[in-house]
Amino acid sequence: MESDTEQKRCLQNIPSVWTVLNGAVLSLELMIAITKVLENVYVLKDRAGCCANLVVGKEKALLFDTGSGIDNLRETLESITELPLLVLNSHGHFDHIGGNCQFERVYLPKQDFSILESYDTETLNRWLRELTRDSLWPFLASPREWKCIRPLEFDSFDLGQMACRIIPLKGHTAGSVGIWIPSLKLLLSGDALTPVMCLNFQNHLSAKIQYETLKQIQNLEFDWYLTSHHETLFEKSLTKRMMKCIENSAGKKFQFYQYPQPPYAKGWIYLDSLGEEPVALILSEEEKRTAQTMNVLDKERTDGNTEQ
Description:
By secondary structure, the chain is of the alpha+beta class. It is built from nine helices and 19 strands. The termini are far apart. The N terminus is likely disordered.
């Protein structure tokens, strides 16, 4: 266990390339990889492998997720745009809210505020050291103490000739949301639409709800989507493979699985298909124990409700 004395000693020896800002220790070196995926759309990947999405409009810019918090995301953004920023979190997991303290105001879905209560400073710092092999304490306060986080209470906004809609994407967590940008035919999805569907982390919901989310987004007009753990665009058609994966998992054998990085969540995985991008479903122990979800999906297929 790290002691207060050790933390203070660490802070007293912060190298000149680091600074303390709003309860976080940040690198002043620009270590974030910038990938331009569309005109005015960027993926910013930090050293922990966490991605934030930046969309630049005519009047404002949107930052969707803030990564792990290990790197100076704010300064990286200023190297791309000087427009006023609107900052949103896709959900409440630590690797999506870590950089929140670098901004005055960040909006988080209300249903995921409970996740903040489960995090303590010591655990978060240990996880980031394991992800980055860095010896510093990036966090000086726990997320529940961060005054920058506000509840997300609006469902649309405009960046200047670029209308955006907030879309519920429940499954990965109860509060997961995405940002639909019709003019770009793009959906920002956080972790809600990763091809390996992880329903074993904090505040997760069932495979049934994940399936309903996938079904509902088929009605949205978009060609591409981004996640917060990939630097490339995915075609919308991949979401139909994900639906098929959940359907095919009924009655199939799941293998025990433990996520190899923080937060090391355990679960059970069903690998449905490889192709250019592997598609799989990971369930929690409690979800695996009940066949209720899969029975519902079986009924939907019998009733002919699943799009072929």
